[in-house]
């Protein structure tokens, strides 16, 4: 903890690589900045140990899920798809940023051919909506690009959600009763000896 102030961390996604993070592990013999790690469950806790963190873990679950829970609603034919951007995460050092654009183009074209209405959601932060807009214009893709808008209303709108396997949206969609198709863009440290690859059968990793 910095300045003698205890601090907890509750993550909003599922880490899938063995990348070490200074706030949790420490640096050059100095202790971690954090005091305690609040985990969703066993996967978070095993990941913490695998990265060499000395932090104690307290299992809290993911509190936001309680506000999202809803019964699953099935449609004869889904017609609305929310596609989440799939850029490489900051702890995925082998992934290629350009592959995120190819993924977006391929998935949105496929959905258009199947008659889906689509929306494309960027993660708040570094991703540039204008870059994606240029790519989509070049490939004649019609979709609504979202960035800073809250994600939960968009998930409620969708019949199906497609996005990164490490996103917190995976469990949020499950709580909302929405099907979520998880994606890993190879090459990726997530599947190359990563924590998620060791916990899930290969057939469940959508590529």
Description:
- This protein has 207 residues and is of the alpha/beta class.
- The chain is built from 7 helices and 8 strands, in the order E-H-E-H-E-E-H-E-H-E-H-E-H-E-H.
- The protein has helices at 22-25, 42-50, 97-113, 129-138, 151-157, 169-175, 195-199; strands spanning 8-10, 36-39, 57-59, 80-84, 117-121, 144-146, 160-164, 180-183.
- The protein has a 5-stranded parallel sheet with strand order 6-5-4-7-8, with helices on both faces.
- The longest helix has 17 residues, at 97-113.
- 28% of the residues are buried.
- The model is unreliable at 195-207 (pLDDT under 50).
Concise synopsis of the structure shown:
With 207 residues, this protein is of the alpha/beta class. The protein is 29% helix and 15% strand.
């Amino acid at each position: 903890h910095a300045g003698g102030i205890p601090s907890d961390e509750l993550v909003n996604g599922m880490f899938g690589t063995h990348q070490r993070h200074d706030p949790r592990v420490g640096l050059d013999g100095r202790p971690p900045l954090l005091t305690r790690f609040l985990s969703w469950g066993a996967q978070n806790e095993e990941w913490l140990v695998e990265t060499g963190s000395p932090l104690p873990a307290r299992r809290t679950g993911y509190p936001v899920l309680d506000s999202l829970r809803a019964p699953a609603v099935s449609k004869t034919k889904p017609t609305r798809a929310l596609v989440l951007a799939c850029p490489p995460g900051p702890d995925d050092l082998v992934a290629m940023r350009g592959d995120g654009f190819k993924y977006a183009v391929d998935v949105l074209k496929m959905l258009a051919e199947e008659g889906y209405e689509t929306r494309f959601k960027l993660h708040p932060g570094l991703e540039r909506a204008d870059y994606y807009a240029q790519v989509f214009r070049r490939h004649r893709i019609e979709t609504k690009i979202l960035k800073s808008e809250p994600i939960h209303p968009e998930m409620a709108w969708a019949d199906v959600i497609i996005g990164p396997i490490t996103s917190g949206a995976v469990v949020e969609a499950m709580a909302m009763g929405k099907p979520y198709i998880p994606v890993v863009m190879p090459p990726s440290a997530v599947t190359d000896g990563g924590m998620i690859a060791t916990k899930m059968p290969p057939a469940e990793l959508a590529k």
